[in-house]
Amino acid sequence: MAKEIIIIIGGPGSGKTSLIEYLEKKGHTCYPEISREVTLEARKQGIEQLFLEKPLLFSELLLEGRKKQYTSAVNDESDIVFIDRGLPDVLAYMHYIGDAYPSFFDDVCKEYRYTKIFFLPPWREIYTADEARYESYEQAELIATHLQETYKSYGYQLIEVPKDTLDNRILFILEHLS
Prior knowledge:
By secondary structure, the chain is α/β, with parallel strands linked by helices. The protein has a single domain, classed as Rossmann fold, CATH 3.40.50.300. Helix content is 52%, strand content 13%. It contains eight helices and five strands; from the N terminus they run E-H-E-H-H-H-E-H-H-E-H-E-H. A five-stranded parallel β-sheet has the order 2-3-1-4-5, with helices on both faces. Helix 7 (137-153) links the parallel strand 4 and strand 5 (158-160). Helix 4 runs antiparallel to helix 5 (87-97) and helix 5 (87-97) crosses helix 7.
């Protein structure tokens, strides 16, 4: 069996973190979202919302962190690795805010390829804001659209995960693996 690097994407509050944590509890190899850790590190340095104040720096830090996750996933002994968000997410967020980025961002997304992309659609009933999630539900919907467009622009076919219980979402994903 070839190594599978599976990405779970979706706008803020669509259930990605819960799904990744549940997959991990079920014994699957999972890598968490890293944007919160980048944000928290910036707060320690006195920058309240790095993405809002210095979006390019934030995006560069995320790109580097996600490249490291990809490399770790490739070298992981597990046949299947699930990751909460991938490299094209960085570009999707830059598109969302309308900012330009260096061409190497695009090069990285072309070079580092994932096996499958599962998309969690916006889901108002489970959406909640918190100290690290500042987007409104409407903004989360717009981000989800940018995520879909960006991943498709790199030739990925997105598999939409139905809005359902965690158990059923996990079953859906596992049934769609090779």
